[in-house]
Amino acid sequence: MTELTLREIWDRIVTTQDQLESIDKVVFYMTGVEESGSFVQVEESASEHYGEPLPYCKEVALEKIHAMKEVMIAREQTLKGLLDFYVSVYHEQKSKTVSE
Question: What Cα–Cα distance (Å) separates residue 45 from each residue in 41, 48, 49, 51, 52?
Answer without folding.
Answer: 11, 8, 8, 8, 11
